[in-house]
Amino acid sequence: MMREKKINGRKRHIVVDVIGLVLAVVVHVGDTQDRDGAKEVLRKLRGRFPRLLKIWADGGYAGKLTEWSMRFGGWILEIVKRREGSKGFEVLPRRWVVERTFGWLGRCRRLSKDYERRTENSETMIYLVMIGIMLRRMTKRGY
């Protein structure tokens, strides 16, 4: 689970599976706390994925959210952090999967900027783009 802040005035929170396919999306205004956005996206997961046990998340979600996710959905929320003393870019385990998904979504012109007036429309566009990505893979046209 991670957020993307590259769109002015909006934050996108997504949960992906281990291969990077989107499970849940929440788009909200940029001044909302990350932990509040995380709770919204985790609420969308409840009851939909009974085999989901562990969620890896960005360091921005650390704190009381780990206990909340265990009480709310029975999920272990594991925060992926950088190594102590590391400088510059570092590929973090499990986090690169979400970064790659944001890269796939960023290739779509409609998602490169915030063209939508409503956050619900932005969420829907993310789902539609992900459906297109999955269909291209299934038909072996490549990506």
Please characterize this protein's 3D structure:
The protein is an alpha+beta fold. It has a domain at 2-50 and 92-137. 40% of the residues lie in helices and 18% in strands. The protein has five helices and five strands. It has helices spanning 34-45, 65-73, 95-106, 109-112, 119-138, and strands at residues 2-4, 10-16, 22-29, 54-57, 76-79. The strands form two sheets. A three-stranded antiparallel beta sheet has the order 1-2-3, with helices on both faces. It has a two-stranded parallel ribbon with strand order 4-5. A hairpin with a 5-residue loop joins strand 2 and strand 3 (22-29). Helix 1 (34-45) packs parallel to helix 2. It starts with a strand and ends in a 5-residue tail after the last helix. The mean pLDDT is 85.
